[in-house]
Design a protein that fits this description.
It comes from Halorutilus salinus. InterPro entries: DUF5814. This is DUF5814 domain-containing protein. This protein is mainly alpha-helical. It has one domain. Helix content is 63%, strand content 3%. The protein has a two-stranded antiparallel ribbon with strand order 1-2. Helix 5 (92-103) packs across helix 6 (109-132) and helix 6 (109-132) packs antiparallel against helix 7 (136-151). The chain binds zinc ion. Zinc ion (ZN) is lined by residues 63, 65, 68, 71, 73.
Length: 154
């Protein structure tokens, strides 16, 4: 399962009771993205929760695609953000804390760790294929990124 299937809205049930919509637990489920995209329902929430979710909308849902928010951009941007946090040297538990503080989301440390491990393995595969094809720039970039993810593991 992708990491984006394992990122959750904090207190989804309480939020649902404040809105006229049912907020699903998984923030990347279609219905949740739908609620966030229109933002009307979010306005009914307390300031802290509202601001955190609007931060999510600003950071990950700001594209102009016709099929937004189902275009894949939110997922792609979020995954990139996780990698960036990791490259800044954050441990999985610090990443979990950052997601909660910034966006009012929660995830499990083990799931973040799995995601990072999977990313490392994918990059290794890219390195090998790129090397075989003599695509050395791609190979070196994959290696750098992999070193960043592995290197600062705490
Ligand atoms: Zn998009």
């Amino acid at each position: 399962m992708a990491i984006t299937d394992r990122v959750y809205v904090k207190n989804a049930r309480r939020l649902s009771s404040r809105m006229d919509r049912n907020m699903p637990r998984n923030v990347f489920s279609g219905a949740a993205l739908d609620i966030l995209y229109s933002t009307d329902e979010i306005e009914k929430l307390d300031a802290g929760t509202r601001d955190a979710l609007l931060e999510f909308v600003t950071d990950f849902m700001d594209c102009d695609h016709d099929n937004a928010p189902y275009c894949g951009c939110p997922e792609r941007k979020f995954v990139r953000h996780l990698i960036e946090l990791r490259r800044e040297g954050m441990s999985p538990s610090r990443i979990v804390e950052a997601l909660e503080a910034e966006y009012g989301l929660y995830a499990y440390e083990g799931d973040v760790l799995d995601f990072l491990d999977t990313s490392v393995r994918s990059l290794e595969a890219i390195e090998e294929v790129a090397d075989t094809l003599a695509e050395y720039e791609t190979r070196d970039e994959a290696r750098r990124l992999r070193d960043d993810i592995v290197g600062s593991r705490q």
